[in-house]
Protein 1
Amino acid sequence: MLKMNKIHTFLFCINLFLFLGIDNAHAQNDSLVYNERFGLYLGADLFKLARTSYDDNYSGFEINGDYRLNDNIHIAAEIGNDNYTFEESNLLVESSGSYIKLGANKNFYTNWIGMQNMIYGGFRVGLSSYSQTLKQFNFYTIDNTFEPEIQVVDREFNNLSAIWTELQFGFRVELLKNVFAGAHVQLKVLVNETDLQNFDNIYIPGFNITNDFNALGAGWGYSIRYLIPLRTKRKTQAINPGK
C-alpha cells in the first residue's frame, strides 16, 4: 500500500510539472518580448532652411534635439540663428541674432509594438541675444500733398536680449529605421526684453515678430531627426490583452 502511495505521489508531481510547463509556454505565446530604443534625437528645422532659399528678407537655421528620459518624457532643446529684414512702406529694420530654448515634451500617444511615434505637448523657456538696425523710416502724415521723405539713419541697437516662455504641440512619425519627421506649432509669451529709446523691438530671433498690443507670439516648424540609440529597454506586451 505504501508503495502504491509513492507511485501516485510521483505521478502527481510529474503531472504538476507538465501542467506548469504548458501553462508557462501558453503565457509566453500570448505575449511578445521586444527591445524599445532610448537615445538622442538630433535634427534640423526644415521650414527655416526652405524659407532661407525663397525669402530674400530671411536667412536662418535651427538645430534641435531631445533625449528620451523615460516612456513618455523627452528633455528637449533648440538652438538657432535668425537674420530678418522687416520691410514695410514706412519702415525698414534688420534684426540678427541667436537663440536657445530649453524644456521638455510629453508623449500622449500609445504606440503599437515596436513603434516610437509621438503626439506631444511641450514647454520651453527661450533666450535670445541679438542686434537691431533701423535702416530707414518715413514720418507718418495724413497730408498727401507731398510724398513723405525717406529718412535714412542706419542706427544700430546692440547687446539686446529677450526671454519668453513657449508651449509646443506637435507630432512625429518614424519614416525609416531611426529617421523621424514631424511638425509643430508654438504659442509664446514674451516675459522680458531690452527696452529701446524711442524705438521698439520689431523682430526677436527665436520669438518672431512682436506687436504693440500684447506679449503674445506664435510660430511653427517642420523637422527631420535621427535617433542615436544609446540604450534599450526590454518590454513585454500582451498579444491578446483581452483574454
Note: Residues 57 and 85 are 5 Å apart (CA to CA).
Protein 2
Amino acid sequence: MLPEAFEAWEASKLTNIPMEASPDKEACGFCEWKAWCPAWLWAQKQGDLIPSGIFRDMVATLEKVDIENGIGLVERMGPINAEGELAPTGQRAGAVFAGQALSQLKSLRESNYDGPVFLGGVRLDGETWKLGDWCDVLPWTPLLEGRKRD
C-alpha cells in the first residue's frame, strides 16, 4: 500500500504542466482551475459548453475602473484558439465590484497588472454585472507548458 500512497502523493504536487482538460458541463461547473485552463473557454467557443444561469464565468478586460466606488466598464473577451489567446467580443457592460471581488481588483491594480482577467461567478441578472464575495477576479494566465500543439 505504501508505494501506491507515494504515487498518489507525487501526482498531487503542483507543476507548471496543466492537468489534461476534459471540458463538459459537470466537470467545468464548479472547477476551481478555470483562470488557468484555456480548454473551458475554447469549449464554449466551439459550442461544447453552453453557459447558462445568472452566474457566469468569463474572461474580460477592464476598460475603465473607479476603484473608490467599485464600478467599471468591462469588455468580454473570446478565445481565438485553444491556447487561450483572446480577442475583444464587443460585448461591454457596466460592472459593480464589492467585497472579495473589489479586494482582488484592488490587488491587481496595486500589482500593475494590466491584462485580461478571469471573472468567476459574475451575476448577470440585469444590465450591470455584479461581482461580490462569491466572485473571483484573477489574472487570466492559462497554463500552457507541456501542451501538445496541433
Note: The chain has four helices and six strands.
